[in-house]
């Protein structure tokens, strides 16, 4: 295997429940305003500016949850990752920048406070993860540590071993 590619999304059951709940709330609000003619909280059925603001906010929340994703590529150049929509393009870490690189099991909540883009306070550590508890641990020569979540650590490690010398790990 010469190239490892992985795309991860927040598609856990509980994320889908959140998305569909927000969509349900939006549909309820629209029914109350446009069909029943009732106010919802402080937004009356004739306050179109407030209705548009509420609708846009809820649509943006759903869109953000659907757009969130982590793409990882490992090849002869190094490791590229992109956490959409926060990274406009791929971030690349070349093999020359790395002191160590390996896959490992980690504790998302205890070590990083959960999933997402998770900087660790008072350290140079950061995690980019979507789900699960397996990741690609990168120790940079400048002392910074980056963990990139993976759902396929075995194949990721095969490609890492191909391009990076892991002596001493």
From TrEMBL:
Superkingdom of the source species: Bacteria
Residue stretches spanning the membrane: 12-36, 48-70
Keywords in alphabetical order: Membrane, Transmembrane, Transmembrane helix
Protein name (database record): Bacterial Pleckstrin homology domain-containing protein
